[in-house]
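Record type: monomer structure entry
Structure origin: computed from sequence
Chain ID: A
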Amino acid sequence: MKEIALIIHEEATLSTVTGAMDMFIHTNNLFQKLYKQQPFKIVLAGENASNHLLQIQSPFISYSSLNEIPHPDLIIVPAFYGDRDAMLKKHQVIINWIKTMHQNGSEVASLCSGIYFLAEAGLLPGRSCTAHWSDMEDIVRRYPDVNFLSDMVITDQEGIYTSGGAFSSLNLILYLIDKFCGREVGIWASKMFSLDMDRISQSHFAVFKGQRQHKDDEILKAQTYIEQNHHLQINIDEIAGHTNMSKRNFIRRFKKATHNTPFEYLQRVKIEAAKKALEKGTQNINLLMYDAGYNDIKTFREVFKKITGLTPQDYKRKYSRVDPIPA
């Protein structure tokens, strides 16, 4: 039986807590019906001596303060609401406890923005990780020594697990059930909770907003130029000239400020424009391609799929506002 410490605090996104809890409870129920030992002992863990946040009536759930849990097998950190700096400062006790438990051998998992707790505990340098795609820019800025994979739904590296954003974090719980209980139980859980078993990408959910959390005015000027002229056949030499920099110096400064090369940034702006057109119901893919600044349909499709994980046609079917619902 694995003891799972599920962290709770006032700012926790309770849907991530209860979603994980529900999946573990139902898995225990399955084993109980089969007259087998339940695989999970679920402990709601918090700083306070009593639990005022969740009152769960289940024989599989208990509550303990952090200092009453000597060595959980797995710690799960939920997403949270609020200003990142304020929350991390407020919950330093939890962060320190996570660090200590991991040093003592506990595995640690984060759901969506819970990754900030892991990063502050020093668990992520050199490791691959993921979270909500909208947190990428802030996380890369705060923790430059982590390998943030914004398109991934799940990462698993040396006992550190991270998950994508919002309800995709439940895919990590499904993955853990599959890993700890075996494939047969994993398939059962996939069907029980209507979750895709092997979903690996969240890239088609991402909305590219431009990485502007920096203070390089010349690069901000270049970003604006790209965003206003992406539909034209502009090139890197032209953009660098717009900032009065040499091409080499421009590329270096652009990547330092935005964590993308100018070419990558231009591609992402073009594809974001194409996504918006598809969502509005644009019917002609070739016309859309030209409007986005591409001349070759094969290149357009390859870049679109690389960035979103879907072909333009698949993206249109999934997100178009005017497509009829299939009969």
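Annotation 1: DSSP finds 14 helices and nine strands in the chain.
Annotation 2: Residues 323-327 have pLDDT under 50 and may be disordered.
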